[in-house]
Amino acid sequence: MRVTMIGSGYVGLVSGACFADFGHDVVCVDLNTAKIEALQRGEIPIFEPGLDALVATNASAGRLTFTNDLPSAVAQADIVFVAVGTPSRRGDGHADLSYVYAAARDIARAVRGFTVIVTKSTVPVGTGDEVERIIRETNPEADVVVVSNPEFLREGAAIEDFKRPDRIVVGIEDERARPVMEEVYRPLYLNQGPLIFTGRRTAELTKYAGNAFLAMKITFINEIADLCEQTGANVQDVARGIGADNRIGSKFLHPGPGYGGSCFPKDTLALAKTGQDYGTPLRLVETTIAINDQRKRAMGRKVIAALQGKARGKTVGVLGLTFKPNTDDMRDAPSIAIIQTLIDAGARVRAYDPEGMEAARAVLDNVEYCESAYDAAKGADCLVLVTEWNAFRSLDLVRIKDLMISPVLVDLRNVYRPNEAEAAGFAYTSVGRRS
Ligand code: NAD
Ligand code: UGA
To answer: Could you tell me the mean pLDDT of each successive run of 10 residues in the chain, 435 residues long?
Structure first.
């Protein structure tokens, strides 16, 4: 099949490369000329494990190409995916759909023959109706069907998630879309049969409901962690104890500094706004958002408490800046609020991240960037582990301690065991456990 991907960011590039790997002819389009030129030179503009090899293999086989020429890419396509950004709209928290609607207008002008238009971006319920209206208004002759096919991949595990999904949700309003969607996902459909066909509005809402549920699950275990700290219980054992119940499930029960990233924060906010618009407030989601927002700064205060309440003039080393490991994505990373809280309290911050330093510099300009974890520990009064990169899992704690002014370790991801940190001489604080 001839597949065109509009938007070559985290989702568009990964999906495009995976569809090419399934044997389809894929053209990835982006407005960003520098991004397309880099991709044409074989440079991958984002850090995502395995993506460089996947792109290289499929590009050299001629199945994956990159262009700024949207009209030509759309005109030759059997199926066009829209994978542009849907960030929070400034001011009100609704999803900003301007990129989706602009893409719909561009597609409408360029489309030739019967074409399936698929929204892969995360969009509020009812957006497919508006996309269809825009296309018909822009080009009444266009022979298209508009489908919702939300994406469930995670950054850092994107290729694996795309190729081995728990399910693929496809929302259609016109049966002509069904065989085309089955064909484009054929390798997955044949092996696992995880395609779930629904109405378009249901598919759109399913995406938000899934992300909100996961965000609530994380927030729940974070609150239980706080209670564990007060009562002397151990949150990891609680998580293991409840997660073993299949009705609950063991995943997304890792306590930490609050969820971040390009999706949970903006999607929970957009879902809450949709609920309010329809007169159906989603109070669990609204509360989740409020708790998570407060938690990030509360983690900054936890660090200050580890410094005996005196941050002014102290140096804090921060390990990990991205919102999770194995990505260079800094969007809504908890590190931003944590570091801001520390700086507001008068601390000096030295930080290191294996892949996120360039993106971090764009959002955190009052930080000293270091060469390594050991460099970040140099001269520090306290070291904070914010993102659980594998590189931070087996640090030489004795060496770290010797580099620091005072051996205080705040482990916001429970990477170390309290007894090993204490044996190395640290005053050690983690999340939801005392020992
Ligand atoms: P991104 O910002 O990394 O990429 C979006 C790309 O679209 C950018 O490169 C931008 O230049 C391009 N673009 C914007 N308008 C365009 C247009 N009219 N024509 C061509 N290109 C255009 O965003 P992302 O993280 O890939 O997210 C895309 C969508 O997928 C969002 O709705 C997001 O919520 C959803 N999503 C993201 C993830 C994730 O892990 N990042 C996972 C699932 C779903
Ligand atoms: C998330 C979802 O997991 C994907 O299914 C979805 O497609 C994507 O959002 C999206 O819609 O864009 P992602 O944001 O890449 O994926 O990463 P996650 O692994 O879900 O982590 C999100 C945040 O939650 C991170 O800050 C992470 O540290 C935090 N988290 C996750 C926890 O604090 N505890 C956990 O147990 C799990």
So the answer is: 98 98 98 97 96 98 98 98 96 94 98 98 98 98 98 96 95 98 89 85 98 98 98 98 98 98 97 97 98 97 97 98 96 97 97 97 96 98 98 97 98 97 97 89
How many residues belong to the chain?
435
262 lines ligand 1 (CB under 6 A): yes
CA dihedral sign of residues 246, 249, 250, 255: negative
**What is the ipTM for the molecules in this complex?**
0.98
Instruction: Say if residues 143 and 114 touch (Cβ distance below 8 Å).
Output: yes
Number of neighbours of residue 305 by Cβ within 10 angstroms: 12
Residue 407: what residue type?
A: P
Give the predicted TM-score (pTM) of the model. Answer: 0.97
Whether 382 sits among the annotated catalytic residues: the reply is: no
- Cα–Cα distance, 305 to 280 (Å, whole number): 40
Residue ranges of the domains in the chain? 2-198, 227-429
In a mutational test of the pocket of ligand 1, which residue from 262, 269, 327, 332 has the highest number of ligand atoms less than 8 Å from its CB?
262
2-198 and 227-429: same fold?
yes
- Ramachandran angles phi, psi of 343, nearest 5°: -70, -40
Rounded Cα distance between 387 and 324, Å, is: 6
Domain covering 2-198 in this structure, CATH number: 3.40.50.720
The H or E element spanning position 351 is strand 348-352
Distance 217 CA to ligand 2 centre (A): 11
Residue 26 near residue 19 (C-beta atoms within 8 A):
yes
Any atom of ligand 2 within 6 Å of the Cβ of 211: yes
- Phi and psi of 382, rounded to 5°? -160, 145
Nearest to 6 by CA among 94, 97, 99, 126: 99
Class of domain 227-429: alpha beta
Identify whether the C-beta of residue 412 lies closer than 8 Å to the C-beta of residue 386.
yes
Question: Does 219 contact ligand 1 (Cβ within 6 A)?
Answer: no
